[in-house]
Automatic annotation (TrEMBL):
EC number: 2.7.4.25
SUPFAM superfamilies according to UniProt: P-loop containing nucleoside triphosphate hydrolases
All residue ranges annotated as the Cytidylate kinase domain in the record: 17-215
Protein's cellular compartments: Cytoplasm
Reactions the enzyme catalyzes: dCMP + ATP = dCDP + ADP; CMP + ATP = CDP + ADP
Organism of origin: Caldovatus sediminis
The name this protein goes by in its record: Cytidylate kinase
GO annotation terms (biological process): pyrimidine nucleotide metabolic process
Amino acid sequence: MSDGGAPRPGAGRAPVIAVDGPAAAGKGTLARRLAAALGLPHLDTGLLYRAVGRRMLDRGADPRDAVLAEAEARALTEADLGRPDLRGPEVDMAASAVAAIPAVRAALLDWQRGFARGRGAVLDGRDIGTVVFPDATVKLYVDASPEERARRRLLELRARGVAADPDQVLSEVLARDAQDRNRAAAPLRPAPDAIVLDTTGLDADAAFARALAIVRERLRSAG
């Protein structure tokens, strides 16, 4: 794919693209497509917290237990990120709970930074542009209305054969938002210099086209 004049990732300092936003805003799909278009590696940082949350659930432990959660974060392996059971409401809430623990975030911070060091990357999560890479080349904050995000989550669950109640899914989205935005450690919020992309009225292709145009323009400016 032509880059339309944007600098190659290998030209100068390797670019880091931060894609943040709340649950079910579409940031994961968007980040993967941006990475492919730009020839950069992609990291879904939410998987790190999901994997820690899953390990806590496997132990029958309370995900809010800071001591155990830090130990599980430090014991995390790449194999944990490939587990097939890292999605679903129970893991969603466990991931949000462990992500609120400062020691867990500290344990995973170097892992995330090391992933992009030297080669650049597109990373999606909730604090990439504010904490993990505050000097990221481009920062996007991808958002959508809670109702639209609940609709997308419902479609995703049904596609996997999971029965779900629309009101319950919306309630879970709102609860996750409140937990992420009100936590003391790295609360979910746009970085001051992030570009906010509201995808409420956009399908995946339209959101990608708009995001790619923003990223290319920022890369040209940075170059």
